[in-house]
Amino acid sequence: MAAVMLLAACGGGTEEAAEPPPPAVEAAAVRPAGGLDRVTATGTLQRQREAQLSFRVPGVITQLSVEEGDLVRKGQLIARIDPTAVEAGRQQALASLEQARRNYARDQTLFEQGFVSRQRLDDRKSALEAAEAAYAAAAFDRRWATLAAPSDGVVLSRPAAPGQVVQPGQAVVVVADAASPLVLRAPVPDQDAARLQTGASATVRIGERELQGRIIQIGGQAGRATGTVNVDIEIPPGPGLRSGQVASAEISAPAEGGTDFARVPAEAIQEAQNGRAYVLRLDKGVARRTEVAFGGFEGDDALVRGLPADARVITAGGGFVGDGDKVQVVDPQALIAQAQDAGS
Fold first, then answer.
1. Who contacts 195 (Cβ-Cβ below 8 Å, separation ≥6)?
2. Using a CB cutoff of 8 Å and minimum separation of 24, what contacts does 139-143 make?
3. By three-state DSSP, how is residue 96 classified?
4. 161: closest CA among 281, 300, 239, 65?
5. CA distance 241 to 48
6. How far apart are CA 43 and CA 57, in angstroms?
7. Left, alpha or beta for 142 (phi > 0: left; psi -120 to 50: alpha)?
């Protein structure tokens, strides 16, 4: 009996203390950044393919057979300059070519007889090749003494007039290709253009009319002076629509931060710096310190990237929790109600 009592006394002294509960934390689910923003822009309507016709050589316009608004057919003669100067240039180049041919033929015979050197014959051949190239260029310029419509279309403008002296590259007529779509070309700030995508929908307003369009092209670079990027929005054809009309557009774009970002409460962010941050992610009751890409704050939320869609992050109590610690997620409203019940 004494031995039993002694063992009982010793057993009572070795009873282990109860393990303390894990720290209580609050958590929130990751939410998509979501939503679409609207980018507004104003520009002018134009055909996607518009050709500015000009001569390759200077001259006096002797014929200009179209007016602004005229319909033209592919290959139709539009303008002509006085060909006297270009024809004279072609004739001169032809004469030089014929002389070079005679010189080469004569020296080739003399070379075969041993009266001229190989170097002299090579020089004659080089001169002949240069004369051939000069004649080809002069003949090409002669063909460009007339302008023809490159496609079926409409004359948008005619900045030149008969009798006017024009220089190479000076616009004579601007023709729009009738087969090309009508687009609204609008300058968009570069930071907004970065969020746009080809194929995005847009609402285009022209006066009282409202049309649905889509982006078909986004400029490759921003203007140095304006910082804007040209965006082409295709709109369906309709009566009364023509190049030069002013229109405005509202374009669908991902909300600031982009669709690949997610939202978490701002208090979940730890050590945000240089586009990186850390959060405590819940993993089966354990806190895991996780690095994420940080896209800034938006209201009461932070934009992050690198978390699973179904992740949950610790929002309160994280300051007392380390990586790998077990935690107990509590509902703050339930704690308040429990405290109120205890006080009553």
1. 37, 39, 253, 254, 256, 258
2. 139/90, 139/93, 140/56, 141/56, 141/57, 141/86, 141/89, 141/90, 142/83, 142/86, 142/87, 142/89, 142/90
3. helix
4. 65
5. 14
6. 34
7. alpha
pLDDT digits (tens, 9 = 90+) for 161-180: 998 999 988 999 999 887 78
By the 8 A CB rule, do 282 and 314 touch?
A: yes
* Tokens read off for 15: 């009873």
Contact 313, 268 (CB under 8 A): yes
For the full predicted model, state whether its pTM sits above 0.85. no
* Six token digits for residue 244: 């030069």
pLDDT tens for each residue of 73-112:
999 999 998 888 778 888 999 999 999 999 999 999 998 9
Angle (CA) 32-35-41 rounded to 5° is 140
From the CB of residue 132, how many other CB atoms can be counted at a distance below 10 Å? Answer: 15
Return d(Cα 250, Cα 269) in angstroms, integer. Answer: 34
* Cα distance between residue 135 and residue 6, in whole Å: 126
Q: What does the buried/exposed string (b/e) look like for 202-213 if buried means 16 or more CB atoms within 10 Å of the residue's CB?
A: bbbebeeeebeb
- State the CB neighbour count (10 A cutoff) for residue 123: 15
205 forms beta bridges with: 210, 248
